[in-house]
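seq as requested:
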Amino acid sequence: MERLDRFMARANAAYYAHQDPFRDFTTSPEISQVFGEILGLWAAVTWELIGRPDPVLLVELGPGRGTLMADALRAIGGVAPGFRAALHLHLVESSSRLRAIQAERLPGVIWHSTLEAVPHESVLVLANEFLDALPIRQFVRRRGGWMERFVADGQFVEIEAGLPPPAPLPQGEGEGVVVECGEAGLALASSLAARVVARPGAALFLDYGPEVSAPGDSLQALRDGRPADPLTMPGTADLTAHVDFAALARAAMGAGAAVSGPVAQGLFLARLGLFQRINRLATGKSPGHAAALVEAGRRLAEPNRMGRLFKALAITSPAVPTPPGFEG
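struct tokens:
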């Protein structure tokens, strides 16, 4: 028997070490090059806001194939040569298989298995669909008390929750209500906040989940591109859960950092010029190519697709002005 967060961590470690995640899902950088370009330019403007530290570490958490960072660096090199000269590229990636793919696209990279291993310098952190794969715990309301979910033989087993719980559990919830707690994500937010309080820096997260904390079971799995039982055949499916952005914001502010957002991804990207950039790319292209570029942008931004479910959240040094995309 294994606590859910430990089961999830072990299963995802095996999945990313041995499976091809891009067979199961497509992330925003793979949908449109403009996504990575916009995030690169966001980092360039934010570098100016934090005082142009030189050197500065440009860090990506969970960089996948390296697509986002390759697009970001191309955009940075074109319009922000000072930032390009100052940055040192660091990737947080534990999979040796994915590191080999990233090395083909991103020369001069320094890899780390954890954020804690990244040197304590000024940082600009980008993380797209990283938080959703971090392990969670689940608590279930039973007979006026709380039980915690463990996994045994592909099934949930409920054990009386130990005291104190990892976070205050709401009172007055009905029978069978599930509350999730992502301790790994909260620790990451606190750790990044401590870094940007100590030295000028910022972090940008894009992921999916509600704007306001709410109960519910969001654990899910994808195997061979289709929904699957998350408790069976561990290591063969990608396990994810909705990100509790409000809890992350509280953790970061509790460590002294400033927080912007969350805002809907569609609004965030539109404010940063998503459709203007797509229109420029589409100019002069064949009708089919131009239509594909526009369709990719719509997929990222439209509310009934990725634009509303996905959110953007920034953690910055306390005195830094509001970063781009979060105005208002």
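The radius of gyration is 20 Å.
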